UniProtKB/TrEMBL annotation:
UniProt keyword annotation of Coiled coil present: no
Pfam families reported for this sequence: RasGEF
Top-level lineage group: Eukaryota
Keywords of this entry: Guanine-nucleotide releasing factor
A single MF term (Gene Ontology): guanyl-nucleotide exchange factor activity
InterPro entries: Ras-like_GEF (IPR008937), Ras_GEF_dom_sf (IPR023578), RASGEF_cat_dom (IPR001895), RASGEF_cat_dom_sf (IPR036964)
Any GO BP annotation: Ras protein signal transduction
Protein name, UniProt field: Ral guanine nucleotide dissociation stimulator-like 1
A Gene Ontology term for the protein's cellular component: plasma membrane
């Protein structure tokens, strides 16, 4: 699904769609802040605050993919360099942004993100150890018995 081999893009269509969605959201964040050259820092700050509020709502509904896309857009170099704009944003809003950004910190092999996904119940998995493992073995034995 890489750019080098577009003929194989059908093999990873869902991955490609996910990447495209992520990029579209990130670019929308960036472009909404930068598209109008005549905006004052306070006007750009209002747009950034809106995106932070949207990110917080996404956090609450556990849409971590879109949340990460928005955080990535706000952390991009063109937005990060808007020093006068960031200075206008309230301390509380900056703290909220930093808290949301910490979710996706790469520190400790993205441990914060993984712990959050496990705690929130959004990372589903089947526990195949212990009692469940014994039940699976019984199912397989019955299937093998009927096949044989």
């Amino acid at each position: 699904w890489s750019r080098r081999d577009k003929s194989r893009s059908h093999e990873a269509a869902t991955v490609l769609a996910t990447v495209n969605q992520f990029n579209a959201v990130s670019f929308r964040v960036i472009s909404s802040i930068l598209v109008e050259h005549s905006l004052k820092p306070s006007e750009r700050a209002a747009i950034i605050c809106t995106w932070i509020d949207i990110a917080q709502e996404l956090r609450l509904i556990k849409n971590f993919s879109s949340l990460k896309a928005i955080i990535s857009g706000l952390q991009s170099n063109p937005i990060y360099r808007l020093q006068k704009t960031w200075q206008v944003i309230s301390k509380e809003k900056i703290e909220l942004f930093e808290e949301l950004a910490r979710i996706f910190s790469e520190d400790n092999n993205q441990m914060t993100q993984r712990e959050l996904l496990m705690r929130e119940g959004t990372a589903k998995f089947a526990d195949t150890f212990g009692e469940n493992d014994k039940q699976l073995q019984k199912v397989f034995q019955k299937q093998n018995h009927h096949i044989a």
